[in-house]
Amino acid sequence: MASSQRRRDDVRAEREDQLRTKRELAQQRRDEEDYFARMWSADMESKARKEEEQLRRQTEANYRTLAVLQQQMAEVEEKKRQEKQLLDEQAQIIVSNTNQAGRLA
What is the CA radius of gyration of the chain? Predict the structure, then answer.
């Protein structure tokens, strides 16, 4: 009977060891899954920050380009205005000279 009790105790101890090992493995698996989930999340956040930074730099570059183009357009418009003013002045001089020539004749 003592042998049978000892056998039951041994079986119970072995079963407890198996269950403890199973719990430890399950906890290790959960820890690994948590670790990889954190790593994935950190990687995604890093990628999002990089994309946002790239977008910000591109937006700034676009605004600088726009400012340069607007300045160039303003310069072209000013040059056109000056050329028109010069042509108008030349036309007035021609008309004035024609009127004076007509009076002299």
Answer: 45
